[in-house]
Amino acid sequence: DSVTSASPGWKTWHWTTRYPINLYDVTVNIGDYIPVHREVTGIAPTPVPLVFYALREDTAGAEGLLDQAETMLRFYSRHFGDYPFYKEKFGLAESPFWGMEHQTLNAYGNHYKNTPLGYDFLMLHEMGHEWFGNSMTVHDWADFWLHEGTDIYAEAMFIRDQYGEEEYHWFFNQTVRPRIQNKQPIVAHRNATSAESYTIDVYYKAAFVLYMLGQMIGSENVERVLYNLVTDSLHTGVNGVSTNDFLNAIQSQTERPLDSFFQAYFFSARLPELKVNIRYQRSKVTLTLSLDSPGLSLPVPLAIVSGSDTSRTVLWVTDQEQSAIFTNCTKIIVDPEQRLLVDIHRGWLRRILDRFRH
Fold it and tell me: How far apart are CA 356 and CA 60, in angstroms?
């Protein structure tokens, strides 16, 4: 807020914050910085100062970075409410490490690199924590996915907004899915330490689980829950949010019971097994599906191939074996775009050759 000179050659810097702040969100950066300033309107009740502290030798991309920052801030405020710290600023400070969500002064060390789609994912991710993590904050490391998984999901929403639906699904299939490890549950035991909770799955598996929930109850309902969590004063500031808060809010969006889904994906590391048996007989195909998790129900996408034509359908599959018969069908592909997190166990594929087919 101010700088005073205590004696010749010495200055004292004074900082204050107008908002509650987590201790891990506090940073001090010292370097030969060139501040690049502008204001952003439309993301809060008043214009928000936007500043990037670029290192003197690395300012060439500063204005372009702030152009992106404006676009991203407008995206977040549109989907998750006003920028939470608008009475202060949104700032970036160039750093020797990749990044960190320091409140109102994100560390930025991505050196202006963009993804193949053309956006700076590091800035987008750390900026998202102003909503998920700095404003809406968990009190237990067990719930850390509510900072990180939601932020990865928000990146997918940004991709959908900017680049379309196809790229949104591609992001989950090609960027998120390959990083999932399934080594321990997303949600650790209560009163967990950071070391016990911090795994890559709180980022990527949690985001994919949100994606699956969107397929089950509608992505608009999942995103409404996220919006409510980050704008409700019950969960912002010095208050806290928990996994149970999220689960209760999601369940309120549907009459479909989700307890088994929550247990399978948030509280277990092991993926459910989808048992698949396909039997080819003359001009018909019999598909039999079931899940090995009691009470679990998932929408399983199918591609039905008939010659050069392909149709799509979805079957809701449970732990009870169920069959469907398709006529004039040459091939069935289960979950063709890999939109489910399951281990697929394929039973014996029996083809009874129709000697008259040829």
Answer: 71
